[in-house]
Amino acid sequence: MATIKDVAREASVSVATVSRVFNGAAVVREETARRIRDVAATLRYAPHGGARSLITRRTHTLGVLLPDLYGDFFSELIHGIDITARREGYHILVSRSWEGRTEIEEAMRAMKGRVDGLLLMSPDVDAESLRNIPHGLPVVLLCTPAGGASVDSIIIENFRGAKEMVRHLISLGHGRIAIIKGAAGNYDAAERLRGYRAALRDAGLQVDGELEIDGDFTEAGGYAAVVELLARDPRPTAIFAANDSMAIGALSALRETGVRVPQEIAVGGFDDIPLARYMDPPLSSVRVAIADIGALAVEAVLHSINHKNGRGPQRKRVSTELVIRRSTGAPYAERP
Amino acid sequence: MATIKDVAREASVSVATVSRVFNGAAVVREETARRIRDVAATLRYAPHGGARSLITRRTHTLGVLLPDLYGDFFSELIHGIDITARREGYHILVSRSWEGRTEIEEAMRAMKGRVDGLLLMSPDVDAESLRNIPHGLPVVLLCTPAGGASVDSIIIENFRGAKEMVRHLISLGHGRIAIIKGAAGNYDAAERLRGYRAALRDAGLQVDGELEIDGDFTEAGGYAAVVELLARDPRPTAIFAANDSMAIGALSALRETGVRVPQEIAVGGFDDIPLARYMDPPLSSVRVAIADIGALAVEAVLHSINHKNGRGPQRKRVSTELVIRRSTGAPYAERP
DNA sequence: CCTATTTATGTAAACGATTACATTCTTGCC
DNA sequence: GGCAAGAATGTAATCGTTTACATAAATAGG
User: What does pTM read for this prediction?
Assistant: First the structure.
């Protein structure tokens, strides 16, 4: 692979001049510049990113560490991150972290020297890991409890959103409302559960452990949860799934067992993934501007990168919006 | 941020020894090693990836260049790539390329020196761009016409899959089968269209341009296409959507206009995304092991990286499988 | 035609690691 | 105790860039 030296030699100039042509910094005689560009093209020369970042101390890359890459939520999140990052001239280095702290720390070390900042989502893990972030690496936490750690963070207003959805179900007259919980230990899941309970209590309804079914944020989990719920006696008349994927699985299970939605059981989800409106019946959900989370996070980390002086940890919350469709009894269809 | 020199100084050893501890290469006295690790921990030292790769000429990173990051297909593809890459100790640098050749070339240059190999998907673009790949960078093409270029490639058996689906529709007695085409200029889309036409011809049916509606691989596109199709007289009795997202949009439109699926119109998709089985009715589709594409691609590029000697371009095809569910009249439900 | 500016180019020192080779320190053996 | 062999550590070159500084070339002013 051609290096800057090869180009310099072929064009009979010094490496400095070649570098200048490629960085547009200083003035280079037009004729020289053209000659250098020609040589570079025939040699298929492209600057070596690693070497360049070694001295400029900029990689123009953001690390993105997510618990998973699968499904609509992460798809949209990555999309949002990418759009914003790209607009600012940054690339993204995506990685997935499995279980626990060591994995995450290992991933973070691996990113040292290859990224200018880090977007970290790790809703299952305490903030302890953050103590070992290589010093000087700007980090933004996504949907992750920051604990006492002094880092920026972006979280969804899970509590409020869940509460609104459940309040909506109550306002429709439902008294026995079940919840399909999110993954155990997950921060968003815990907050949504908290919102669910708060709404019940506010309405003077009883919080009943029997109506809180375990889930794992997957379609299959939602399906299984409904199978379990239908065995309850008396049955719930409404189900709040802690995310849309589970709600979709739930709808599928209800359909197969011949339970009419929303007449017999109403179903609400969370996230408002693009597909929600294409379900039958279209799924009521709590809209989260997922792409916005990504955009906000990128902006935050870029700010840290460009203004090294800390202004104290910023905590942003992304608000939610109740989207009522037919699965909770909205009468008319929404045209996509 | 701490460097290897800082660690060496604090631990009163040379940088070489520190390096050895972190690479496990040569023997270091246990006591010394421990002291170095302690110092490294308190200094929060992590090796600088860029500097390291400069001399080892390995970044342990794969570049992934996709036309989009949005939706189930790419989500699953990235997931498959990540799983395999990670198993082999590689990270992935994801980027999205918009329109045309210059964008792609620019992205490829940006990856120079930061990746050991490149996974490139660019179904809309001719293979011309590939001429400008920095020399010596192993590349694998995903779902992209390779043309005459001498690179590895992985493609889906679009033609066969589409043909099978349409043949299935024909075998159910359908004579007026419409297709919602994929994005214009897209390779997969073109092949699926070709398969559709071939199946019709093989069955002695007429290929009718009126029944070939433009689409763009999105739900909204599928929805709009159906609106247009329903205006046709006579109506088609079956619709083959070139991917599942469009099929889902199509189902939604049919439902809203009160057309029963599959009794009045049967619908088939392509890709078999996880959601297909959760639709109402569950969507018949052509299963593509999307994650396998990613895995195969990673293996191919890793092979090129580790065995620089070319063995000529490898072309792998990922086969498809017809999955019949109720949207084309399968009588029984499949349990998720 | 000579000097003072301005403009274009070259030289060489970083950046943070790895690693071949050189050197020093331990051992074990006679 | 002396010496050879082996183990542990150090020295310095290297990877491909950028960039401050030095130098050479071109231009202007007299």
Answer: 0.89
Do B269 and B244 form a contact (C-beta atoms < 8 A)?
A: yes
Q: Which residues of A touch B79 (CB under 8 A)?
A: 68-70
Task: Say yes or no: B3 contacts chain A, CB-CB below 8 A.
Answer: no
| Interchain CB contacts (distance < 8 Å): A and B | 188
Q: Is B132 in Cβ contact with A44 (below 8 Å)?
A: yes
For the segment B317-332, what is each residue's pLDDT rounded down to a tens digit? Answer: 999 999 999 999 865 4
Measured between CB atoms, which of B46, B93, B255 is closest to A93?
B93
- Per residue in A289-315, pLDDT (tens digit) is 999 999 999 999 999 998 876 677 889
CA–CA dist A180, A192 (Å, integer): 10
CB proximity A249 to B under 8 Å: yes
What does residue A143 show for φ and ψ, rounded to 5 degrees? 50, 40
Contacts of B226 (CB under 8 A, 6+ apart): B180, B239, B249, B250, B253, B254, B257
Mean pLDDT in residue range B110-115: 88
d(CA A327, CA B210): 36
For residue A264, which phi and psi values (nearest 5 degrees)? -90, -45
Smallest Cβ–Cβ distance between B50 and the set A59, A72, A220 belongs to: A59
Closest CA of chain B from A22, distance in Å: 12
Task: Tell whether A137 lies on the interface with B, counting CB pairs under 8 A.
Answer: yes
Q: Residue B157: is its pLDDT beyond 80? A: yes
Quote the pLDDT of residue A265: 95
Contact A255 B220 (CB under 8 A): no
- Residue A128 confidence (pLDDT): 60
Closest partner residue to B54 (CB to CB) among A51, A86, A132 is A51
Per-residue pLDDT at B289 exceeds 80: yes
Q: Which nucleotides of D are covered by protein (CB under 7 A)?
A: 7-12, 14-20
For A31-63, the pLDDT digits (tens) are 889 999 999 999 989 999 999 999 999 999 999
